[in-house]
Design goal:
Layout (H helix, E strand, L loop, with lengths): L1 E4 L4 H13 L5 E4 L10 H7 L6 E3 L5 E2 L2 H9 L1
Parallel strand pairs: 1-2
Antiparallel strand pairs: 1-3, 3-4
Length: about 80
């Protein structure tokens, strides 16, 4: 699994803090630069559907872009 993350937004921060609290360390973190518009590039949009960050990409290619849904999935 991969988390597409940025340091400059509150929703990714929520997911990062959740992962720290739960001790989740086995998820790859991929930095996304909002200032460079990386979340609006065609390859990112093809996965996410929307220009939202954070995004959880599962091993089967399924992607979740809502921070609360990501936290719930990681909890389960």
């Amino acid at each position: 699994m991969k988390i597409y993350d940025t340091q400059r937004a509150p929703n990714p921060r929520r997911v990062r803090l959740f992962m720290i609290e739960k001790g989740i360390e086995d998820v790859e973190i991929v930095p996304v630069s909002l200032l460079e518009g990386a979340h609006k590039q065609p390859d990112y949009l093809a996965k996410a559907g929307l220009a939202n960050v954070p995004m959880l990409e599962m091993d089967d290619g399924t992607c979740i872009t809502e921070s609360l849904a990501i936290c719930r999935y990681l909890e389960s």
